Protein backbone atom coordinates (compact mmCIF):
# COMPACT_ATOMS: atom_id res chain seq x y z
CA UNK A 1 0.00 0.00 0.00
CA UNK A 2 2.99 2.33 0.38
CA UNK A 3 3.13 3.00 -3.36
CA UNK A 4 -0.63 3.50 -3.59
CA UNK A 5 -0.48 5.95 -0.67
CA UNK A 6 2.37 7.90 -2.27
CA UNK A 7 0.34 8.57 -5.43
CA UNK A 8 -2.90 9.07 -3.46
CA UNK A 9 -4.52 6.17 -5.30
CA UNK A 10 -6.43 6.88 -8.48
CA UNK A 11 -8.24 10.09 -9.36
CA UNK A 12 -11.91 10.43 -8.44
CA UNK A 13 -12.51 12.80 -11.38
CA UNK A 14 -12.88 10.22 -14.15
CA UNK A 15 -16.25 8.81 -15.21
CA UNK A 16 -17.02 6.33 -17.93
CA UNK A 17 -14.25 4.86 -20.01
CA UNK A 18 -10.94 6.41 -20.88
CA UNK A 19 -8.11 8.30 -19.31
CA UNK A 20 -8.03 6.85 -15.81
CA UNK A 21 -5.21 4.43 -16.66
CA UNK A 22 -3.19 7.25 -18.27
CA UNK A 23 -3.75 9.40 -15.17
CA UNK A 24 -2.51 6.57 -12.95
CA UNK A 25 0.60 6.20 -15.16
CA UNK A 26 1.27 9.95 -14.84
CA UNK A 27 0.94 9.79 -11.04
CA UNK A 28 3.47 6.97 -10.89
CA UNK A 29 5.93 8.87 -13.08
CA UNK A 30 5.51 12.12 -11.11
CA UNK A 31 6.90 10.55 -7.95
CA UNK A 32 9.73 8.79 -9.75
CA UNK A 33 8.46 5.22 -9.56
CA UNK A 34 8.81 2.76 -12.43
CA UNK A 35 6.14 0.58 -13.94
CA UNK A 36 7.38 -2.94 -14.53
CA UNK A 37 5.20 -5.04 -16.79
CA UNK A 38 5.33 -8.80 -16.30
CA UNK A 39 5.47 -11.14 -19.27
CA UNK A 40 2.14 -12.07 -20.86
CA UNK A 41 1.79 -15.34 -18.93
CA UNK A 42 2.41 -13.85 -15.47
CA UNK A 43 0.57 -10.64 -16.31
CA UNK A 44 -2.79 -12.23 -17.11
CA UNK A 45 -5.66 -11.28 -14.86
CA UNK A 46 -9.28 -12.43 -15.07
CA UNK A 47 -11.67 -9.73 -13.92
CA UNK A 48 -14.85 -11.78 -13.97
CA UNK A 49 -18.17 -11.17 -15.66
CA UNK A 50 -19.28 -7.73 -14.67
CA UNK A 51 -20.82 -4.96 -16.71
CA UNK A 52 -18.97 -1.73 -17.22
CA UNK A 53 -19.88 1.11 -19.49
CA UNK A 54 -17.95 1.54 -22.70
CA UNK A 55 -19.18 5.13 -22.97
CA UNK A 56 -16.11 7.28 -23.49
CA UNK A 57 -15.49 10.02 -20.99
CA UNK A 58 -15.81 13.24 -23.03
CA UNK A 59 -13.59 15.10 -20.53
CA UNK A 60 -10.72 12.59 -20.44
CA UNK A 61 -8.24 14.70 -22.44
CA UNK A 62 -9.07 17.84 -20.48
CA UNK A 63 -8.58 15.96 -17.20
CA UNK A 64 -5.24 14.53 -18.32
CA UNK A 65 -3.91 17.94 -19.35
CA UNK A 66 -4.86 19.93 -16.25
CA UNK A 67 -2.15 22.29 -14.97
CA UNK A 68 -0.60 21.66 -11.55
CA UNK A 69 -0.97 17.90 -11.91
CA UNK A 70 1.23 17.12 -8.90
CA UNK A 71 -0.76 19.30 -6.49
CA UNK A 72 -4.01 17.96 -7.95
CA UNK A 73 -2.75 14.42 -7.34
CA UNK A 74 -2.47 15.20 -3.63
CA UNK A 75 -6.06 16.50 -3.47
CA UNK A 76 -7.90 14.08 -5.77
CA UNK A 77 -7.64 10.42 -4.88
CA UNK A 78 -7.68 7.82 -2.15
CA UNK A 79 -7.29 10.24 0.77
CA UNK A 80 -10.43 12.10 -0.32
CA UNK A 81 -12.67 9.00 -0.11
CA UNK A 82 -14.25 7.69 3.08
CA UNK A 83 -13.83 3.93 3.20
CA UNK A 84 -13.21 1.03 5.54
CA UNK A 85 -10.77 -1.73 4.66
CA UNK A 86 -12.71 -4.97 5.13
CA UNK A 87 -9.99 -7.40 4.08
CA UNK A 88 -6.64 -7.58 2.33
CA UNK A 89 -5.02 -10.52 0.52
CA UNK A 90 -1.41 -10.30 -0.67
CA UNK A 91 -0.61 -12.22 -3.84
CA UNK A 92 2.75 -12.52 -5.60
CA UNK A 93 2.02 -9.83 -8.18
CA UNK A 94 -0.85 -7.80 -6.69
CA UNK A 95 -2.81 -7.03 -3.54
CA UNK A 96 -6.57 -7.65 -3.41
CA UNK A 97 -8.47 -5.19 -1.23
CA UNK A 98 -12.12 -5.35 -0.22
CA UNK A 99 -13.36 -1.88 0.71
CA UNK A 100 -16.63 -0.63 2.11
CA UNK A 101 -17.32 2.81 0.61
From TrEMBL:
One Pfam match: Glyco_transf_7C
Molecular function (Gene Ontology), one example: galactosyltransferase activity
GO cellular component: a single term: Golgi apparatus
Record keywords, A-Z: Transferase
Domain Galactosyltransferase C-terminal: 2-47
Gene3D superfamilies cross-referenced by the UniProt entry: Spore Coat Polysaccharide Biosynthesis Protein SpsA, Chain A
SUPFAM superfamilies per the UniProt record, alphabetical: Nucleotide-diphospho-sugar transferases (SSF53448)
Protein name per UniProt: Glyco_transf_7C domain-containing protein
Source species taxonomy: Eukaryota, Metazoa, Spiralia, Lophotrochozoa, Platyhelminthes
Amino acid sequence: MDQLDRINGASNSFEGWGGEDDDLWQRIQMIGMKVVKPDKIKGQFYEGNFYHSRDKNPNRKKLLNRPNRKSLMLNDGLRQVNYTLESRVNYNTFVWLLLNI
